[in-house]
Amino acid sequence: MFDVIAFDADDTLWHNEPLYRGAQQQVLDILAHYHARDWIERRMYETEVRNLEHYGYGIKGFTLSMIETAIELTEGRISGAEVGRIIELTREMFKAPVELLDGVEETITTLAASHDLMLITKGDLFEQHAKIARSGLADHFSRVEIVPVKIRETYQSITAKHKINPERFLMIGNSIRSDILPVIEIGGRAIHIPYETTWEHEVVPEEELAGREFVRLAHIRELLTLIDQYRSR
Question: Which pTM does this prediction carry?
Answer without folding.
Answer: 0.89
